[in-house]
Amino acid sequence: MGIIQDVFPFASTNINQEGEDDVPTPIDSAEFEQYEKLLKNANQELYPGCESFSVLTAIVELMHRKIKYRMSNLCFDYFLGVFKRMLPTDNCLPKDHKHAQKVLHGLGLGYEKIHACKNNCMLFYKEHETLDTCPICNESRFKMTSQNRTTKIPQKVMRYLPLKPRLQRLYMSTHTATDMRWHKEKQVDDDVMRHPVDWEAWKEFDRTFPELAADP
Q1: Please, which domain of life does this record's source organism belong to (predicted)?
Q2: Spatial separation of the C-alpha atoms in residues 188 and 123, rounded to whole Å
Q3: pLDDT of residue 28
Q4: pTM of the full structure
Q5: Does the pLDDT of residue 169 top 60, yes or no?
Q6: Cα dihedral sign for 44, 46, 49, 50?
Q7: Comparing C-alpha atoms, which of 113, 115, 111, 125 is closest to residue 161?
Q8: What are the pLDDT digits (tens) for 61-82?
């Protein structure tokens, strides 16, 4: 439950000194829907009677190992299939990497797919989003069949990990929020360079943008 409360702070029940509930935080409907899905997976046993893993904790554990040991999606799918056959038949383990990612998407760990030119000339993005060929090298955006027909499969895809939601998660999590504010609350000006905040460039930025500097 801790990981869900970090992502969705409104999930925590806030009690004031008089023992009454605080005024509830306004909740976006789409955000609340994501919260409900994650809560369901966090409370659902991996299989009936399993006390060690919920669906969510099992997926997080497996995805962590996938990244740590650099497993391909194909390899990951294979082992998920093996694990599903080992577990009781009524288990809730996702059948492949794609379905596992859908569960984790609600944690803000998703990414955006942006088509790219095969020769790395440009991205089919923003004003170029509707183009079918690269305006620089004229290479087709999509793969061709053996009959020289255009498919809808892109020749190259860039996966973009948005920075904003990831920074928001770092500030929202009780485990990392204090670390994110260290440069403002714990930094010691003793002429020792131990962090980027000690650099002159950071200090110049604070002088140029005092309002941003005041909000760690």
Answers
A1: Eukaryota
A2: 44
A3: 56
A4: 0.55
A5: yes
A6: negative
A7: 111
A8: 999 999 999 999 999 999 999 9
